[in-house]
Amino acid sequence: MSLRVTQQAVGRTNLASIRQASDNLSIAQEQLATARRINRLSDAPLDAARAHRLRASTTRLDQYTRNLDQAQHEIEFTASTLQQVSDIFIEAGDICVRGADGSTDSAERETLAFAVEQLLGALQFNANAQYNGHYIFAGSANDTEPFVMEPADGPVASVTYQGNTQTVALGVGTRTQVETCEPGTDIFGQSGGDACAFDVLVELRDLLRNTEGLTDNDLSEALSNHVEQVRTAHNRVIDATSRFGWRSSQLEFTRTVVDNAMLANTEEVSTLEDADYTEAAIMLQRHEVALQTALAVAARMTNNSLLEYLK
Question: Which structural domain, as residue segments, surrounds residue 76?
Answer without folding.
Answer: 54-268
